[in-house]
Write a structure and sequence with these properties.
3 domains; 4-stranded antiparallel β-sheet; alpha+beta; Multidrug efflux transporter AcrB transmembrane fold; 11 helices; about 375 residues; Hypothetical Protein Ta0175, Chain: A, domain 2; 10 strands; about 60% helix
Length: about 375
């Protein structure tokens, strides 16, 4: 790292090469967004996510065939956490009315399978649960424990009434258990989001990113000069657009890489904004000091000196952070993969933009407007 202390690279003069690289990446990203779009997670489009973990490796094509037979509409099945795990996604939030009675009959069959003499009766049913009445306390206790073992969510109303939750997950679980009795599985997670909530989350996420950029613009306008604030926000838009473009370009292309836009990924984008602006502010601060000290020196020399003198700090900070998020990307599992990927790629592109986009933009603006920067 000692060699970084004596760097003397003319970064600003290479800005046109950087413009070409950045412009190409942004254009590719915009085309990907326009033609491929983004893979929105359940947080935004609504629906039900069910993660299942099997005891033994499974054939995912067999799972798809079995679930297609349930006629749950648009259903997606993919591997999750290895060859023995799957993630089932459907846009439904509740069991369709036309198969509700089938679900209840399925639960009754499970009860009679364990306790042939149970003779349960239905005392109440809603869109989300059904209440069974049992005459024998010992039978209800036995049935309760066995249904829970099978993955049903149950609760006791009193000594004679057992409430069994009815939902998409129950229907899917019961269908798979009947078709694959020798491969036991557990439900790792189950998420439900309504379309209205998903729409509100989408709107709030966009607003949060815009407000963060606006706040940075105002703060840096006071801290430095408006042109510096503009350069920083341009670099941040650059980072977000390129990272979004990569999500659009790669989703569904790289196996095992969960590149859907979820709330955690939005959090990663906001983290990228904060991380990238930190590097940029350090460079801008050094530019301001150079302009105050070397008042007669050309602006391009002051800016190049600032970038070169802060390069060691920039690389050390970026690399140490990158090591951590790379480990998270590799070992964090499927749930965190999108979040970790956004951070990993965002750190790389954010470090690049601090050197080749933010400061060169300020120089280009000053050169074209022929305004002199004074502090």
């Amino acid at each position: 790292m000692r060699i970084l202390d004596n760097l003397n690279i003319d970064f600003i003069s290479k800005r046109k090469i950087a413009y070409t690289i950045s412009g190409s990446l942004i254009l590719l990203g915009l085309l990907s967004l326009a033609f491929r779009g983004l893979e929105l997670g359940i947080d935004f489009k609504g629906g039900t996510d069910i993660a299942l973990k099997f005891e033994n490796p499974i054939d995912i094509s067999e799972i798809r065939t079995e679930l297609d037979a349930l006629e749950l509409g648009n259903i997606e099945v993919k591997t999750f956490g290895g060859e023995s795990g799957i993630l089932v996604r459907t846009e439904l939030q509740a069991v369709p009315p036309e198969i509700y009675s089938l679900v209840i009959n399925s639960i009754q069959k499970s009860i009679l399978k364990y306790e042939p003499n149970a003779n349960p009766t239905i005392s109440d049913s809603t869109a989300k649960s059904v209440t069974f009445n049992f005459a024998d306390l010992k039978i209800i206790e036995s049935v309760d424990s066995k249904l829970q073992y099978d993955g049903y969510q149950t609760s006791r109303l009193d000594d004679n009434h057992l409430i069994v939750r009815v939902g998409i997950a129950d229907w899917i679980e019961d269908a798979l258990r009947s078709k694959m009795p020798n491969n036991h599985f557990i439900v790792q997670k189950e998420d439900h989001v309504g379309p209205k909530i998903g729409g509100e989350l989408k709107q709030d996420s966009i607003i949060s990113v815009i407000l963060a950029l606006a706040a940075i613009l105002i703060y840096l306008g006071f801290r430095f000069k408006f042109v510096f604030a503009l350069g920083a926000v341009v670099a941040l838009f650059h980072d977000v657009l390129i990272t979004l473009g990569v999500f659009a370009l790669l989703h569904g292309v790289v196996p095992g890489l969960n590149l859907e836009i979820s709330i955690s990924v939005v959090a990663a984008f906001l983290t990228i904004v904060g991380y990238s602006i930190n590097d940029t502010v350090v460079v801008f601060d050094r530019v301001r000091e150079n302009i105050k000290i070397h008042k007669t020196a050309p602006l391009i020399d002051n800016m190049n000196n600032a970038i070169n003198k802060t390069m060691r700090r920039t690389l050390i900070t970026s690399l140490t952070t990158l090591f951590v998020v790379t480990v998270l990307l590799i070992f964090g599992g499927d749930v965190l993969r999108g979040f970790a990927f956004a951070l990993t790629f965002g750190i790389l592109v954010g470090t690049y933009s601090s050197v080749f986009v933010a400061t060169p933009f300020v120089y280009e603006y000053v050169k074209r407007t022929e305004k002199k920067i004074q502090f």
